[in-house]
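Hey, quick one: can you model this chain's 3D structure?
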Amino acid sequence: MVQERYKIPFVGLKPGSHEFHFEVTETFFETCENSDIEKANCQVTVTIEKQSTMLVLSFDVGGNVEFRCDRCAGSVNLPIQGEYGLIAKFSDVEVQNTEEIIYLSSSEHQLDVENFIYEFVQLSFPVRKLHGDGECDEEMIKSLNKYLVTEEPVEQDSEEIEKEDPRWSALKSLIKEK
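Sure thing. Here's the predicted structure for all 178 residues.
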């Protein structure tokens, strides 16, 4: 669902730098599939450097997002921060967009930044969403530890070694030669 509040009218802007501020909360993510965001309080500042043939956009993302902890599944509030860039070039010829460059026709008068905000906020998320040491739900950790499989080295006695298939011994000798 495209919302008007994420569209930036650039036609009336004078050449130079212009800033636009956006609040990103959990309602922003409600329409997104598979979103694991519980709460969000983020600010995105979009700076547009308007030039005659293109727009140079800078996205500054910052704030806090509440996730489910990857370890104990409890709520964890983590800070996010990121800076991203994008170039919007004007072209009446249909050209394929890339990750860094998008193309706008000269008839367009506004730029929808909603998808870019979503992508850049997602890129700012930490890879692992974990509580600090000792902050996880102890009951959940105890429950998970019941199912923890640990591998203890198994010692082979001399009889088992002698019973090894000779074909494997020949293959093992190839490994030792390297």
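One thing worth noting: The chain has a mean pLDDT of 85.
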